[in-house]
Amino acid sequence: MKTLKFNGAVADNDDAEVYDWFGMECITPKDVKTFLDDANGEDVTIQINSGGGSVFAGSEIFTDLGKYQGKVFAEISGICASAATFPLLAADKVTMTPTGQIMIHNVSALQAGDYRDMSDMSNILLGSSENLANLYAKKMGASVEEAQKMMDAETWFNAKQAKESGLVDEILFEDNQQVQLVASMSPVLSHDKISQFKNMINSEAKNSPTLDIRLDDEQMNSITNLIDEKIAAVKAEFEANNSADKPLKNQLFKFGGIK
């Protein structure tokens, strides 16, 4: 069975290159269509870990999955929120990791203009949200009014709640008593630091302002240990080869995938 990693933002086809430029994951209708064409009617799994994105891109994905000739299995491996819930609405069966989360809410948009423009946009948003409420209600076996109230409240479901609501058919590893659910005790860089570092290395303008990145002691120790390990590994490889006619020249070091 073929599996598609449904990771990152749900993006329109024309926006994919922007996400690629920033080194950010995204999933587009084109990605899903290409995957389904390659699967050629074979049963497929859509493994979801996405916070959502474009409603219209999600709608196109929902349509293609709904029309697919083979069976579609949705597997929630992390977060499945907002527009990322479209695949589970089109799937024949939905499974979810015990540590996953599902979130449903109303459609939103950015709009500028006078009261007439705002009124028009309000009607568009209401109509789009009602479309989703109908789909969620059908999936959960609930009334449209109940589904709409959940969306109004921006409702989050853990694995147990998702199964009880009907959004999920099965919780993965539920019968496996050997599974351990743990959080890391290792030093982890914060999202803010990661974003700052990405912005710095992606900056191509020579006169761009310098970013001031400050790491706490724990984060600095983590990076220092990683660098020491990489240097030791290269040194050990060099000593093992012990070849004078193969000097280390222009050696490429990789730290966390960054060249």
Could you name the key traits of this structure?
2 domains, seven-stranded mixed β-sheet, 259 residues, two-stranded parallel ribbon, alpha/beta, 9 strands, 2-enoyl-CoA Hydratase, Chain A, domain 1, single chain, 44% helix, 15% strand
Task: Write up what this structure looks like.
Strands 1, 4, 5, 6, 7, 8 and 9 form a 7-stranded mixed beta sheet that branches. A two-stranded parallel ribbon has the order 2-3. Helix 2 packs parallel to helix 3. The relative contact order is 0.09. It has 259 residues and is an alpha/beta fold. Strand 4, helix 3 and strand 5 form a beta-alpha-beta unit. Helices cover 44% and strands 15% of the residues. It has 9 helices and 9 strands. The longest helix is centred in the middle third of the chain and has 26 residues. It folds into 2 domains: 122 residues, 2-enoyl-CoA Hydratase, Chain A, domain 1, CATH 3.90.226; 76 residues, no CATH class.
Describe the protein's topology.
Elements lengths: L1 E6 L1 E2 L5 H6 L4 E2 L1 H11 L4 E7 L4 H13 L4 E10 L4 H5 L2 E4 L4 E4 L10 H26 L3 H9 L2 E3 L1 H7 L4 E2 L19 H12 L14 H25 L18
Parallel strand pairs: 1-4, 2-3, 4-5, 5-6, 5-7, 6-9
Antiparallel strand pairs: 7-8
